[in-house]
Write a structure and sequence with these properties.
globular, methyltransferase, about 240 residues, 2 domains, EC 2.1.1.200, RNA binding, alpha/beta, tRNA_m1G_MTases_N, Helicase, Ruva Protein, domain 3, Alpha/beta knot, tRNA (cytidine/uridine-2'-O-)-methyltransferase TrmJ
Length: about 240
């Protein structure tokens, strides 16, 4: 199941951080590393700091966009400080570990880390179902990338160890992938523009709030299909007017 949990590093600038993150992952049993548009390719420094986890680096997938990294994931959790202009469903590290393990039994899931200095952008964070913040000392909350990866991977492992002897749940919930959700958001935006509910040139604010609403609601795959059917019906009705 742990191979369903993907660690995604976005636009990493220091190759040593890639190696240190790989080491943090391997100590906790995680193997799936994805590098999104890294500023440099893994090099000798990355291998040195991986300290025996160079196999994680060698198998790392490098992709140009976050969308590609999370396309097939049914759950995406992004790391973030709490001080954001747009509030979002927040988890603490333990809750994040619980969700990643629970849903990792059903489909790929992703834990996304941002740039060393600036983290994830608001647009990137809006692609996540939840945000997770590490409750560090507010007087000195400076965690480097590898420390953050280690902390959250530890919570994943602790939860994974807990569930080893538990009976599996009888009923499984199928959630849409990130790619399917993005398709729904595009469909929703197009429909709202055609009805005049949002302006073509300024859809951002309303769509951000709608993304937050649906990410919080977590519609199941069947429910998302119903919503898209409703949107299609509205579009057909407008075309006939």
């Amino acid at each position: 199941m742990l191979d369903q949990i993907r660690i995604v590093l976005v636009n990493t600038s220091h190759t040593g951080n890639m190696g240190s993150a790989a080491r943090a992952m391997k100590t906790m049993g995680l193997t799936q590393l994805v590098l999104v548009d890294p500023q440099a390719q893994p090099d000798e420094e990355a291998v040195a700091l991986a300290a025996g986890a160079s196999d994680i680096l060698a198998r790392a997938r490098i992709v140009p966009t976050l969308d590609e990294a999370i396309a097939d994931c049914g759950l995406v959790i992004g790391t973030s400080a709490r001080s954001r202009t747009l509030s979002w469903p927040m988890l603490d590290p333990r809750e994040a570990g619980e969700k990643l393990v629970a849903e990792g039994m059903e489909h790929p899931v992703a834990l996304v880390f941002g740039r060393e200095r600036t983290g994830l952008t608001n647009d990137e964070l809006q692609k996540c179902h939840f945000h997770v913040a590490i409750p560090a000392n507010p007087e000195y909350s400076s965690l480097n990338l590898a420390m953050a990866v280690q902390t959250l991977c530890y919570e994943v492992r602790m939860r994974w160890l807990e569930v080893q002897n538990q009976e599996p749940e009888d009923e499984r919930v199928e959630y849409p992938s990130a790619q399917q959700l993005e398709g729904f958001y595009q469909h929703l935006e197009q429909t709202l523009q055609k009805t005049g509910f949002i302006a073509d040139d300024h859809p951002g604010h309303v769509m951000s709030k709608l993304r937050r609403l649906f990410n919080r609601a977590r519609p199941e795959a069947v429910e998302l299909n119903i919503l898209r059917g409703i949107l299609t019906s509205v579009q057909k009705s407008r075309a006939q007017d």
